[in-house]
C-alpha cells in the first residue's frame, strides 16, 4: 500500500513521531497528528496547530552580546487548538489508554488527503464501541480544517461529546536540544465569544501583535442531542448529550484566519469559509481531485520496491502540505508538522525543496521566489548593519526577513544562502524562460547579491577571494574561500551580468536607474567571477573545502563510538572545527549544483575524499552523496545513500521526527531520483539526462514541466523513454547525445 | 606632586571615574572611591565594595547553546556597604550638591596609602563647616577598611551623624557594553544584628552560598553625643547626635571576612580585627611603613617628567592594591576597583602584571602562580569536556577555575592562555631559581599543558600544527597556526622537557608515577617543539599572524571615522574577522616574549607591518608596541606608545575607567620601562639589558629582585649604572657584553 502510511503503536515515543507523520497541512495551515481525546496521564504530546509565517518575537539572550547580533528571534506560534473532542460513553471517558483496544488502525491517505483513525474499544466496564476519526486540512479551502467522528456503540449508549476551541495554548519546550524550538511558552492573548452556532476565538501574539482567529461549528447526525456551549477563560466548548442507538456522526468545521492574509476581516472570512457547512464527503472529493492532479504532475514511480515507493509518496505529499503559496510565507525547515527550528525558512528551501516545485509545480516555485524577493529591503538593511557598504545579505534563518540566527558561526556566517537564493532564481529562469520574472524579480536579487560579493570579497594576486564565511558544512565554521560559497558566488555574479544583458535596451535604462546601477559594476562582477578563487589541492587532485581544511587533522570516525553521533551533541564546536570532519556535503554539493566548474576526475576524487570524512549528521547530506554517486556512475552507492533519505521520517532514523519532519531531506528524495538516477540537469543549453537505474529496481518514471511542456521520463533496465505529454517539440541532451522529442512519438534511448 | 592624585571635579562623569581612580584595596578587600554621603539626586554612582574571588554564579543564557558551552558564569559580587555616613548640620543634610562649595580637595596619597577629601561647605541656609574624610584599606590588616571624618563647623552647631552597614546592595548593570559586568542585580541574603558596640551584617550569595561578614564599630571624639542604633531590613545604622563647638572626629573600623579565608570564623575573625580599635594615626603609620618598603623595592623613577612619574606611581600603586596574595585569588582584570569583566582573571595577569610582581615582589608572584596551579583539576576536566583525550585547558576567564567565557571565539578559543601560564612558571623559575617550586608546581603545569598541545595539535608534512584557535588579537578569531600561540606552545613544550630533566633522578621517578608520565611523552614534546610550525611570509619577510591573515583584505583605517572606534562596538565580528585589522599586538607580542625565535630583521618588518593594521582598541596593546619599538631601537616610537599607557586611567583616555581600572595596561607601564627602555630580558643564560633612554627624560631608574639579589639600574643620557644593593656577585649581559657586578662597586656602561 504505497499510498498509505499506517502506524498503530501506542508507545509514547511512537505517538510523538506519529504526530509529525500524520500531520496535515496545505502550505497555509498545519495540524499535527494529535489524537482528539489526548493520551494517557503523564504522556507527553506536542499538540499543535500552526499557520505558516504566523509568529511572535522573543528576545535573544546572549551571555556576551556583540555588535549586530540579532536582538530578537521570530518563532512560529502554536495557535488555537480545535482538534480536541472528548467522548463519554455511559459515563466512561473514551481513551486509548483505558479499557481495552480490540482494534486500531491509524492511516494517512496520501492519495486522498485525509487521515483516519479507527478504534474498536472496550471500556473498563465492558462497553464496546467503534469510533472512527477522520480529518483533513483542505487543499482548496486553505483556511479549513475539518473533522468527522463516527461513534458506533455495540449496544445503545448514553453519549456525551465535547468539542472545544481552545486559545490557551503554548509552544513546546525542550531545553536539551538546540535544534528544537525553544522559549516562547507564554500564553497568548485570548478572547472568546459565542456567536449563534459558530464559536469564535481570537488570539494575539505578545510582540508582533498578529491576530489569529478560529471559527468553528459542528453538526451531529444520527441522534437527537441536547446541545450546550460552555465558556471558559479563552476556551469554548460545544457539548452534545444523546442516546446512540446506532452510528452517530459529528462533523466539525474549523476555519483559521490571520492578520497576514485577512487583514481586518478575520472573523468575516472565517465565517465565509464555514458558510454552507460543506459535507465531509464533498471536502474529501475536492481533496481527491486536487491530489489526482498533483500526483499526475508530480508522481515518481519506482518499480520493484513498495516500501521505497511509499517513502517517495510520503515525502512528496508532505512537501505539498508544507509549501507556502502566498509570497508571504515559504517552507519551514520542519514544514507545518512541528515546532523544530521555530518555523524558520533556511537555504533548505532553495537547494533541497524548490527544485521539486520548480519542475512539477512552477506556480508554487514562483511564489517561493517572490517571497525571497520581498525580503530584499530587510537583506539590504542587514548588510549595512553587519558592516557592508552595499548589497543584500539574506538572513540565515527567518520568517519575515530579520536574521534569527543566534549563533553566527553556523548562522549569519553562512553567506552562501545569498548565492543559493540567486541560484534558484537562475534555475527558475532556465526552466520557465520567464522574461518578465527576470526583469521584475531576478534582476534585483542578482544585482544586490552581486554587490554583497563585491563588498565582502577582494582580489589578491589576481584571484577574487571570499574570506570569513561558513559553508554548508557546519562542522567547519569561519573559514576563507569555502569552495562551495565561492563557486556559487561566481555563478551568481556571472548570471547577474547575463540578466542585465538579456534585458531589452529600454528596460535596461529604466532598471539601471531604479537599481542605481553604475556602468562599472557589471565589469567588476564579470572580473570577479572570472577570477574567483576556487581552492584546489594539487597533492590530492581535489577541490579543497576551504583554504585550510585539508591541513587539519582527520577525525578518526572509525573509532568514534556510535553513541557519540551526532557529533554536535557530544563535542565542543572548537573540537569539531579543528578536524577534517563534515556534518554534511559541502564541496560535493558544489560539484552537484555546478558540475561544469570542475572536471569529472576532480569531482570523482573529491567525492571519494569527502565521503570518508562526512558523518551525515545533517539530514541534508545523504541525497547529495546519492546524486553525486549516480553522476559518477556509482549506482550502488547512489542507491545506498538514497535509501537513507526515502524513509528517514517514516522510520524515524534520525530519532527526532517528533519535532517535525525533515522537509529538506524529503525534497532530497525527489532530487536523488530525478537529478541523481535520471541524471537530469537544467543548463542554459537545455535539459541534460544521464540515467543510471539501480539494479534493485525495474523502472523509474516521473514527469517534469519545462518551458511550457510536460515531459515524462521512464527508465527501465535497458532504456530511457522520453515522452512529451504536453507542449512543443523539445531538444535536450541524453548523455552526450542531442535528442529531439516531439508530441507524436516517445524517444527511446539505451542507458 | 607625583605621589598624589588629585581631582576635584563634580561632574557626574568625572565622579564615576574618580570612584575607580580613588579606589582603595589590598589584594583581598577593595572599596571604590565613592563619597560617604552620596551624590545629588539622579546622579549615577557605582557604589561598591568587593572581596577578591568572592563571587556568585548566574546562568549564562544562549540564543543557541552548543555542547560544552559553560552553563554558568561566576561574578564578583558587590558586598556589604560600610562607606555610608550622612551628616546633618543644624538640620541641613551635608551634600556637595547643595549649598555652596567654598573649598574642595580630593587626594589619593600613594606614598601613604590613604584617600582624603576636604570640603569647605556653606549650607543652603548659610552655615559653614569644614569636613575632612580620610580612609584607608589596610595593607597589613587585610580585613580592615577604616574611615576618619572630621566635622568642624565655623560656629557651634547641632550635628547628627549616621554611619551605616548596609547589606542591601547589588551589582551595577550596564546593558549597552559587553565589557561591563552584567546581570546579577539581585539582592543578596542579608541578616543584620546589633551586638554591643559592634554592628554585624552577613550576606550570603544565592548560588555559591558563600558568606561575607562585615563587623563595624565607631568612636566619636570631641563632643558628648547621644548614640543610637537603628535596625532596618538588612541594614544597621549607628547615629550620633551632639553639639559641635569645635572639631569633632568620627573614626570607623569596618572589618570584612568571608567563607574562603575564614571558614566558620567569619564573625570571630572580624571582631578580632576590630579589637583594640587601633587609632587611625596608627593605621596610617603602618600603611606608610608598608609602602615605604614597597616603593623602596618597586619604585621606578623617571627624571624630567612629573606627569609621567605620577602615572607610574599611580599604576604601580593600583597593581599593589589589586593582587591577591592568598593563592585562592588572583588579579581581576579591573583589580578591585570596579565590576568590569565581573572580577575575572584573564591572561592579563600572566603576561602584563605577573612580571612586575616577579621582579619586585616575588612572594606575591609565587602566590599568583600557586593560584593557577590550584586550577589544574578544573582545567583537566574542562579539556575532557571540550573533547580532548588528555591535558589541561585553562579557562579564558574565571574566578575558581570554571570557564566563564560566554563567547568562545574570543574566549575558550584563546588556547594561548595555557601557554601564557606555562610561560610565567618558566619565568618564575628563571628569576628565582626555585627548584622546589619547579618540582612541586611547575612540573605539573608544564606536563598537563604539553599534553593539551599534543592532543590538539598534529604533525603534517613534518610540521607540528595547532589549528582552530584565537590568538591575542580578538579581531581575528578561529584561525589555524596563530604565530603567537604556536611559538608560545613551542616554548612551553621545550621547557616541559627541561623541567623533567632538571629533576634529580629520585624525584623524577616519584613524579613520573604521580603524573603518570610515559617514557614516550617527552620525546613527543621535544619533537613537536622542534617541528612547531611558525607561519612566515616570504613575500613580506614577516611572521604571519596565522595561516590566512595576510591573504585578507586590509582594513582602511585611515578612512574609518573616529567615532567608529573601538571597532568592536560598531561592526559585526564577521566583518572584523574578514579583514587584516588587529585589536592589539599579537605577532609582535610573540616577538617580545620570545625574541630568540625570530631574527631581528623579521621582527622589525613584522613590527612595521602589524603596526599599520593595529587599532589598539585593547588597552593591552600600547605597551607591547612600546617595548618592541624600544627593542628595535626606535626610542621615539617607544616613547609615544608608552605615553598612552602611563596615564590611560588617570586621564580616562579609554572612556571607561568608571567601570574599573585597566590593570593590565598598568602592568604594561612597568613593563615598557623595564623591558622596553631598559631592554631587560630574563633568559636562561641570565639577565640581558639593552637600554634606550628617550630624549624626553634625564634619567630612568628602578630596582629588581633576581635570584636573591636586589639590583638597581639607573639610566642617564650617557650611561647605564648597575648597582647591586643586596646579594651575591651577578653576571649579566649589557647589549652583547658580558658584565659582572659586585656588591662593592656599581658598574657604569655606555648606552
UniProtKB/TrEMBL annotation, chains A, B:
Keyword list, A-Z: Glycosyltransferase, Hydrolase, Transferase
Residue ranges of domain Glycoside hydrolase family 65 C-terminal in the record: 680-741
A GO term, aspect molecular function: glycosyltransferase activity
Signal sequence interval, chain numbering: none
Pfam families registered for this protein in UniProt: Glyco_hydro_65C, Glyco_hydro_65m, Glyco_hydro_65N
Domain Glycoside hydrolase family 65 N-terminal: 7-247
Keyword Glycosyltransferase: yes
GO biological process: carbohydrate metabolic process
Positions annotated as active site in the UniProt record: 474
Chain sites annotated for binding substrate: 347-348, 583-584
Residues covered by the Glycoside hydrolase family 65 central catalytic domain: 314-670
PANTHER family according to UniProt: GLYCOSYL HYDROLASE-RELATED (PTHR11051), PROTEIN-GLUCOSYLGALACTOSYLHYDROXYLYSINE GLUCOSIDASE (PTHR11051:SF8)
Family as reported in the entry's similarity comment: Belongs to the glycosyl hydrolase 65 family.
Name of the protein this chain belongs to: Glycosyl hydrolase family 65 protein
